[in-house]
Amino acid sequence: MAKHLWAQVHSESLIDPLANLSRWHKPSCLAAITACYDLGVFQVMANGQGQPQSVTDIESKVGTDVDMLGRLLKHIAAMDYIKETDADTYAPTNFSNALTIPTIGDSYPCFVKGLLPACLHFPAYLTQTNYATPTDVRSGAFQSAFKTEKNMFEYLTAHPPLGQQFNHHMEAKLRYATHLRAIDSDHLLTNRAVVPIPLTTRLDAEPTQHSA
Questions:
Q1: What is the pTM of this model?
Q2: Which of 114, 183, 198, 205 stands 20 to 30 A from 147 (CA)?
Q3: In 3D, which of 121, 195, 209, 117 has the Cα closest to residue 164?
């Protein structure tokens, strides 16, 4: 863990300040990935055994607006999370295939819907409180963002499937984190069967646990 953090800190110091500034795109990409995860897009792509599929083909399996899906996939491909092999045609990557494992993929909706709003709200919260240090655990930036008196764990538990998704994220950190040498990432993706998820499955139901 220490070596991983050391490498991350020092690699950040090598990035040009303007390049770092351009990372504003990351929240929008997180949102696009989460929307496609909710729709089951990455499972459809994984079921194609690595072959490129058109937006129309993918849309026919997930049932959504084809133009909106095309825009989402275009943004995700621009960040290299999937590959655009031809006009409006996409192939999966190791990253997108990994999202079909619930203990990995569930991290996205959990953080985008259950945690990130509090981070984005934090500057406004500080302005509202005149930059005072919070003294009440029931009245912090998280509570202000979500308009609740619950703490984070209580809130996630009270709004399923966020609680289960958070548990999956923590499990993934222990099971698959390569910087902890828990498991080799190539082994993870090449030595497990891709188990199709029924396309009717959505995140309003309990996530299906797949064996790795």
A1: 0.76
A2: 205
A3: 209
Token pair for 180: 């902890």
The single-letter code of the amino acid at 108 is Y
CA distances, 99 to each of 14, 143, 171, 198 (Å): 29, 29, 14, 15
Name the token pair of 85.
Answer: 């092999």
Extended beta strands in the chain, E state? 53-54, 83-86, 89-91
CA–CA gap between residue 44 and residue 92 (Å, rounded)? 10
Rounded Cα distance, 106 and 175, in Å: 14
For residue 76, how far is the Cα from the chain centroid?
12
According to DSSP, the residues that pair with 54 across neighbouring strands are 89
- Show the beta-strand stretches assigned E in 12-117: 53-54, 83-86, 89-91
Q: Are 209 and 102 in contact (CB under 8 A)?
A: yes
89 close to 55: Cβ distance less than 8 angstroms:
yes
- One-letter amino acid at 86 equals D
